[in-house]
């Protein structure tokens, strides 16, 4: 438990240190990729796809299954009919008894004909009677033993066995299933890449939004200080009678407006930093400092190769996912076709049963080995295969059309972001030129005001123009950065 508490404490200290340290854009990306829950879910999904693929590979291997059972029947199997049983039980009576009766009738007939005397006939009858009685009983006993030997005594049956099945030809179903599992792994990896690019895109935009607001806050503070200094000068002039009270009120309104703008920017910075912390997996109320907050020049013109043919279709996970859908649809066609082709499998088994039939119905466990081939051939399904294959091929065509549609849209998206970046660079160049003019205009207004040829309204107008020019530079710098981010995402280069 102490070890677990130590880990928790260390994790809390680490997060706190992240929240208080200066974070670069790269570090924010790393934290977002490490802490994003959707990415973790996608990685678990990739593990599932990998195990599904491994399971599909086992379809090539033999299947071994075991079976054991016991059955009790209220009646046993009988190999003899009731008449046959009765005949066997009276075998001596029906055979030797009939012979004895015929001999007795013959002796009686000889006595009646006078061939033998009645005394001799009586003696012969007693002699044959004493001889046939045990023979009849012996015959009945033999018949009963034969009847008992044919008894199955199968009311209690025990059986156990092992069966091995090796697929030989399944119509291509096993290979199609393995190909689909392989594509499933690709889908999982492409899903991870898609979510990574989505997370990075969101982090980059949140980062530059925060930097933009922070730079505007610095600019607003400079503007407020500028107005405050000008307000102090106007108040001195008012006390000396050079300026009017209305002039002072005009400057105070401008000063209050600047304070309100600072408050709005500070609120926006707090919210944008919370959004960035949420993306990075940090505490929402942490003190977050960004590396580019104090950077003066942000709009470094990064060279980006926007050749759609070479990079986009391979770099965009969306395109790869749609290609995966097309490939799965094609493999599904093969899988459906395999259902209507012959299936061949080799079987082998080992069985133990009691009673067994290898030595009559013997009440002993006896084993037997077997080997065979199973062939399953569909003969007539009322054109079911034809209709299902048509539907599968149509689904493939739909997937191919969706892929082509997305390719065209990506080309348009790349061109849009390329023009957006080009316009942002032009906007930045224009803003820099305007800044030179605004600074010179402000300098001239201050000089003219000191010499009495410029009014307070002229100075405040020059200050406002200077503020707008500075803000335009910040907006243009961030526009260049966000345009670069958008173009990289459109080209699939968010990594």
Question: What would the keywords be for this entry?
Answer:
single chain, 495 residues, alpha+beta, Outer membrane efflux proteins (OEP), 3 domains, 4-stranded antiparallel β-sheet, two-stranded parallel ribbon, disordered N terminus
Report on this structure.
With 495 residues, this protein is an alpha+beta fold. It has 3 domains: 311 residues, Outer membrane efflux proteins (OEP) (Up-down Bundle), CATH 1.20.1600.10; 60 residues, no CATH class; 70 residues. It contains 12 helices and 6 strands. The strands form 2 sheets. A 4-stranded antiparallel β-sheet has the order 2-3-5-6, with no helix packed on it. The radius of gyration is 50 Å and the shape is rod-shaped.
Overall residue-averaged pLDDT value: 82
- What is the tally of beta strands? 6
Structural class label: alpha+beta
In this structure, how is the largest beta sheet organized?
4 strands, antiparallel
Helix content: over 70%
CATH fold-level label of the largest domain: Outer membrane efflux proteins (OEP)
Q: Rg to the nearest angstrom?
A: 50 Å
Number of helices: 12
CATH homologous superfamily classification of the largest domain: Outer membrane efflux proteins (OEP)
- First-to-last CA distance: 39 Å
CATH architecture of the largest domain: Up-down Bundle
Shape: rod-shaped
CATH class term of the largest domain: Mainly Alpha
Strand content: 5-15%
Low-confidence stretches: 1-19
- Spatial strand sequence of the major β-sheet: 2-3-5-6
Number of domains: 3
Please provide the ordered H/E string of secondary-structure elements: HEHHEHHHEHHEHHEEHH
